[in-house]
Amino acid sequence: MTPAGLEGVLRAEHLDAGYGSVQVLWDVSLEVRRGEVVALIGPNGAGKSTLLRVVSGLLRPRRGAVTFDGREITRRTPEEIVRLGIAHVPQGRRLFPDLTVAENLMLGAYARADRAQVAGDLDRVLALFPVLRERLALPAIQLSGGEQQMAALGRALMARPRLLLIDEPSLGLGPIVVQALMEVIGDLRRGGTSVLLVEQDVGVALAHADRGYVLETGRITLTDRAEALLGHAAIRAAYLGLAVGDVGRPGSQDR
User: Dihedral of the CA atoms 48, 53, 38, 125 (nearest 10)?
Assistant: First the structure.
């Protein structure tokens, strides 16, 4: 039985992780609550994608623990973690280019036992991303970048996750497509799905998140409500190119 108040909660505690002799994460702790979007921001190479790989079971940590729904998942396989309710949308989308859009989407449901529910979930995914309905028979390689990102997110949703790990969804996409993707993430949050979002556009990430963590050189250096982080002088200077006093001035690029 899940302990009271822990349903849908991810906790990472004191994680060290890396590759070979290179340590990437140092004593990293964070949590994602039910129905919450949490932004994980920081410079390139800070370890953000590595942290998502640890949570999804693709990389074993050297120290620390990950729990979800009150149970430890640190040593579980990626397949087991998907079945428990966590889906990972990796950077670069990672679709199978020669499979059709429909086949890519259905791969997201491979671990499910409730096969009778899959068709209904496919309809819900296509309602979120109507353009994909017109592309179902096409090979994924023929999709635009935005459509590929929609397909990657749709594939993850076919697993019926309670927690989505999304890595750099806006990479290479135009503002209109990014806004559409963020609106879908907002819809998912309102439906009770939790999201841990890694996003290069810090302004976009924090504008659509409830809370945020700053990861720098493998360590969490700051955490707060998203609104507070948007107004934090160090965040504005390092990631938005603004000082607090610049907000609202002519020529500022506040987002």
Answer: 130
**Element of type H or E holding 216:** strand 211-216
Looking at residue 166, its amino acid is: I
Residue 26 CB-density burial (10 A; 0-12 exposed, 13-18 middle, 19+ buried): middle
The secondary structure of residue 109, as a DSSP letter, is: T
Domains of the chain: 8-239 (3.40.50.300)
25 token code pair: 């994460």
41-65 pLDDT tens trace:
999 999 999 999 999 999 999 999 9
Q: Which two tokens stand for residue 145?
A: 């970048």
Question: What is the tens place of the pLDDT at every residue in 149-200?
Answer: 999 999 999 999 999 999 999 888 889 999 999 999 999 999 999 999 999 8
> Is 149:173 a contact under the CB 8 Å cutoff?
yes
Give the pair of three-digit tokens for residue 21.
């002799």
Q: How far is CA 66 from CA 28, 32, 116, 160, in A?
A: 11, 11, 31, 20
- Measured distance CA(28)–CA(217) in Å, rounded: 11
Q: Virtual CA dihedral for 13, 19, 24, 28, nearest 10 degrees?
A: 0
Amino acid at 12: A
51-107 pLDDT, tens digit each: 999 999 999 999 999 999 999 999 999 999 999 999 999 987 789 999 999 999 999
